[in-house]
Amino acid sequence: MTKGIKIVTIGGGSSYTPELVEGFIKRYESLPVSELWLVDIPEGEEKLNIVGGLAKRMIKEAGLPIKVHLTLNRREALKDADFVTTQFRVGLLEARAKDERIPLKYGVIGQETNGPGGLFKGLRTIPVILDIIRDMEELCPNAWLINFTNPAGMVTEAVLRYSNWRKVIGLCNVPVGMKMGIAAQLGVEPERVHIDFAGLNHMIYGLDIYLDGELYTDKYINLITSEDESSGTMQNIVDLKWEPEFIKALKAIPCPYHRYYYKTDEMFDEEMKAAETVGTRAEVVQKLEKELFELYQDESLTIKPPQLEKRGGAYYSDAACNLIDSIYNDRKDIQPVNTMNNGAIASIPNDSAVEINCVITKDGPKPIAIGDLPVATRGLVQQIKSFERVAAEAAVTGDYQTALLAMTINPLVPSDTIAKEILDEMLEAHKEHLPQFN
Ligand code: G6P
């Protein structure tokens, strides 16, 4: 790639874009991006112009020859792209707020990537991703698709199962967030910590932790089960402490999202409390976004403002830019990403997506086989994988019974009858963004 790298970001008007721009600026020497195309839809045009303006100022301030293009024409942008990153939200934050509020009425967790909310986010998103892939097949057949759009695991599963596109990687900031959190707790540089990650997106475990190459799992478990230490979370997930004896028995580090499964009742109560006071997470984020976009409009702002750190996506740009950098430079370093299992986890189908440590090469991620997950974690992971597969099928076919099946087998939904009630209300609430069901 002597011409310089062409990056296309779909959902470019997102408030997260300055993260990405900062990442490209920091790595320019090893990752010479020549063109950054920020793409959005007409409803996002105002945000695209504001965030695009900031992106241009950041690059000018850095004195780099990266050309930023803002467009509503996805096909124009995709032509000859090298990397396409996706970070869009079908139905915007209004749809997320519905995903979070409706299940609560039925006594069920309302979360954007877990339970009924995760199902509906998948139903809205998967057809759009498959559409983008059809454009990529035609316009940039050699590009890598780096998908950030949630639910990232289910989306990767759908791409692997319902398209022939194989240059796809699902990416999430949870593993890097866990690593940074652990390093901070231990008071060491992150490079000194290594974690054996395996599982699924938002359902990933740290199976072992190493400090300076020495096994540190037991010591770390002792630390987080001691009284005053946090067991790690992110901005969008309340930091409820684990039962010490449970974590000692599990012998693995759960991710922040595991609280929805191992602390379902307490998390439900927290969500209810929030919904009745400050609002659901989407409603909180709507306010935050307003503030952020006001800042972004300030012509004197030429850096990513620190307020962006109030969002859950911390280290998002590091994850994305490190991945792109490692593919471009064939670094063969280890990064946790969503990719085809190919036998890396024995109890998950070979052709399914898993989130696991991979060696990142110019030909993409090569998953590092772990044998199998510990027996205590295996069942839940398999159940979520079944849910993701059935949900992806429902998203592609628009079949009501398949959607009901997905809803019912989700471990956060207590019965088939409640599943049906939630499904019916959510299908109606989201019908504008679910043409396949109409
Ligand atoms: C975490 C998750 C992301 C998610 C984000 C939500 O970082 O890993 O998948 O998108 O939180 O953050 P928000 O600020 O939108 O609630």
What does this structure look like?
The chain has 438 residues and is an alpha/beta fold. It has a single domain, classed as Lactate dehydrogenase/glycoside hydrolase, family 4, C-terminal (L-2-Hydroxyisocaproate Dehydrogenase, Chain A, domain 2, Alpha-Beta Complex), CATH 3.90.110.10. The chain is built from 16 helices and twelve strands. It has helices at residues 17-26, 45-62, 74-78, 92-105, 115-139, 152-162, 174-186, 217-224, 244-250, 259-262, 264-276, 281-296, 316-328, 375-397, 400-409, 416-429; strands at residues 5-10, 33-39, 67-71, 83-86, 144-147, 168-170, 193-200, 203-211, 214-215, 333-340, 353-361, 364-367. A six-stranded parallel beta sheet has the order 3-2-1-4-5-6, with helices on both faces. Strands 7, 8, 9, 10, 11 and 12 form a six-stranded antiparallel beta sheet that branches. α2 links the parallel β2 (33-39) and β3 (67-71). α1 crosses α13 (316-328), α5 crosses α14 (375-397) and α6 packs across α14. The protein starts with a strand and ends in a 9-residue tail after the last helix. The protein binds 6-O-phosphono-alpha-D-glucopyranose. 6-O-phosphono-alpha-D-glucopyranose is lined by residues 150, 172-174, 234-236, 281, 285, 311-313. 6-O-phosphono-alpha-D-glucopyranose binds next to α12.
